[in-house]
Structures are given as structure tokens and as C-alpha cells.
Amino acid sequence: MASPVKGFPEKFPVRDDDRRPWRYRIAALLSRLYLRLLSRRRLRIVGEANIPRNGPLLVASNHTSNLDPMILGGYFPRTLFAMAKRELYFARPVAWFLAGCNCIPVDRGGADRRAVTRALDVLRRRGRLLIFVEGTRSRDGTMHRAEAGVGFLARRGGATVLPVAVSGVDEDGARRVGLWRRPEIVVRYGVPFELDLTGRRDDPAIADEIAARVAELLPPSRRGVYPATGPPDR
């Protein structure tokens, strides 16, 4: 098991009443201000009505930019939890602040049982857990193979899965449009679905099933290893 993160509180989550801690509210506000004012980004959200009001919910997304957590954390209409790489918790004050943003530190270099336990606890409390299915940021803007851990969390957590795709934020798109004409960011929520987990223990296959639903929400050129027929709804 990975060693404890210095500065991360013993009591987690900070609030367990499905309301946002003040640190979460501040981070969401700053994220929205940055996207709207400083980066001059246009944002379009599609399918927000698909978001279930209640959990447990596994929010499964692609990941092409460091802006993705800001976009989803800043604009998701209900309280989210997220798994974030341990490297972000480089100092005690940062660890304390991220804990208040409902971010769970995870050691990507091995099996982090503490992070998995915290993530499953979120789902058992009928919370909403955001996870990037590829495990890390895609450098070329296309979908890469999903991490098996996504399948494990889905299988053990028994949550409804909400696929979501973020496009228009990768560096290649920014270069094509130019410095002063940023591409439009599109957040597209799919239809939530239940996994048939009867007798299934193949976590990589479960992860692939979830990632394929995410890929269907992306433009065909961005679906990578999960090609699908038909463009997403406009």
C-alpha cells in the first residue's frame, strides 16, 4: 500500500452530506473564471439533462488536457469526487486544499489500495465519482486503451455509468485554430447505463465497454482505439 499523503486529512470526505465544501466551491468558481475570462474559451454543454440526480454514479470521461478536471469540476451541476495523481499533492497545504475539493490521491505506479477503498466508499455512499478512463492524459487527442482499474471500480462499485466526452481542449486543436481564436470546448454527456456484471470478472473488458461508450460521444477522428459508427448528435 502506498504511504499516506502528508497533509491529507484522516477524515475524508470533508463533508458527507452531498454538499460541496467551501474549498470545492472556490476551486469551481476559479475554474469557471479562468475558462471564461483568462483563456477566452467558449464552452458548449450537450446532454446535461442526462445526468442522474442521485448516485451511485461513475462519471467516465476521456482525458486530453490539463483543463479537463477544471471543466468537469467547475461545471458539473452536482457534487463530484475525483481521483487525482499523487504528484499533485506535493505540499501539505496543497494536499489539504485538494482534499476539500473531493480529490482522492492515487499512486499510479502500483496498486494503491487506500485510493481504491476511498473511491469505492464514495460509491457505497451513493456519491458521484469522476474517473478518466485512460488513466492519464492522451498526448495526441485520441482515445487510448482504458485502464483495467476502471473496470474494477465499476464491477465492485455497482454504480450507474455516465459517459462524458470533452473535446476542443487538446493542444493540436489550439494550434490549428490559432492563439487568439481558441476552439470551442464541447462537453457531451451520454445516456447513463447499467453494466451487466453477472458472473463477470474481466476488468479490462468492462473498462473497454465503458470507454467505447465515451468514444461514441467524440468526433470520429478522436475515437482512437474505440472506433464507432455514426457521429455524435449535434
Structure summarized in a few sentences:
By secondary structure, this protein is of the alpha/beta class.
Which structural class do the helices and strands define? alpha/beta
CATH class descriptor: Alpha Beta
The helix/strand order is: HEEHEHEHEHEHEH
**Kindly, what is the distance between the CA atoms of the first and last residues, rounded to a whole number of angstroms?**
45 Å
Percent strand equals 15-25%
Count of DSSP helices?
7
> What is the molecular shape?
globular
The largest pleated sheet is described as: 7 strands, mixed
- Placed side by side, the strands forming the largest sheet appear as 1-7-6-2-5-3-4
Q: Share of helix among residues?
A: 25-40%
Poorly predicted residue ranges: 173-179, 230-234
Organism: Candidatus Aeolococcus gillhamiae
Keywords: Acyltransferase, Transferase
GO molecular function: 1-acylglycerol-3-phosphate O-acyltransferase activity
Pfam families: Acyltransferase
